[in-house]
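Need a sequence for this fold. Nothing fancy.
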């Protein structure tokens, strides 16, 4: 019997899954939709830690089980890139936050998450640093907190 060679077998099947769009769900036509949400990692380090994959594995197993029972499982991924962790990491490395975040998201996605084999639908990836996303969170924050004394608007320069 041949030995298992992950550096040969894994890339082959990952390419097959991507080309066949195996994990992409037509959200408009899904007969039995099931939303399987995982926690969104924040790309404020060199890569994912074992706790991320530990959490993703259980959710992914349940998503696979649910798909085998005939449901249209939607398993999206996003990167929660705002916050003090990301800012401190960028300051520590002396790299602009936008540049560092883009590099980390790329690393998380391409060298870690896609290799994990999870049934993630990459066609619906969200990055919280994308203006198309954060304009809505800013709008909701402003709408809910401004006028209650909990927030205010001001102009300031950023270094």
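Here you go.
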């Amino acid at each position: 019997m041949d030995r298992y060679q992950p550096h040969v077998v894994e890339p082959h099947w990952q390419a097959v899954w991507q080309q066949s769009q195996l994990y992409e769900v037509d959200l408009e036509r899904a007969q039995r939709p099931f939303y399987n949400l995982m926690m969104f990692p924040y790309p404020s380090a060199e890569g994912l830690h074992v706790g991320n994959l530990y959490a993703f594995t259980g959710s992914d197993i349940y998503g696979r089980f649910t798909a085998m029972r005939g449901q249209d499982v939607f398993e999206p991924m996003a990167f929660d890139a705002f916050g003090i962790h990301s800012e401190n990491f960028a300051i520590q490395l002396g790299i602009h936050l936008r540049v560092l975040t883009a590099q980390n998201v790329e690393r998380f996605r391409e060298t870690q998450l896609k290799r994990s084999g999870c049934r993630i639908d990459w066609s619906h990836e969200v990055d919280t640093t994308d203006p198309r996303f954060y304009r809505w969170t800013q709008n909701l924050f402003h709408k809910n907190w401004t006028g209650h004394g909990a927030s205010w608007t001001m102009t300031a320069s950023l270094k």
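For context: The beta strands are 33-35, 72-74, 78-79, 126-127.
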